[in-house]
Design a protein that fits this description.
A 5-stranded mixed β-sheet has the order 1-5-4-3-2. Helix 1 runs antiparallel to helix 2. By secondary structure, it is an alpha+beta fold. The protein has a single domain, classed as RelE-like (YaeB-like fold, 2-Layer Sandwich). It is built from 2 helices and 5 strands.
């Protein structure tokens, strides 16, 4: 299934990349690879992640080893990445 980023998710990804590039450049490529693997998994098995309790149409998958969660929803023929959230942020 095709995976697309919403504008807020794209902004999240850009902010994460800029922050890591400035503060933790040695983990930037690893985080990006992990994100790419999770996005590929979502595209292949979109229903594999847990549903968000408060929003039954939204799913969440954590980025293993890193403090990020990816929120997305499944639409006909497309998966929309809605937000990439750092676990320490509100």
């Amino acid at each position: 299934m095709r995976v697309v980023f919403t504008n807020p998710a794209r902004e999240d990804a850009e902010e994460i990349r800029a922050y890591l590039d400035e503060h933790y450049p040695y983990v930037l490529l690893s985080v990006e690879r992990s994100l790419q693997l999770v996005i590929a998994r979502i595209g292949t098995w979109p229903e594999s992640a847990q549903l968000v309790v408060e929003r039954k149409d939204i799913r969440m998958v954590p980025l293993v080893r890193y403090p990020y969660k990816i929120f997305y929803r499944i639409k006909p023929n497309v998966v929309e990445i809605l937000h990439i959230h750092h676990s320490s942020r509100e």
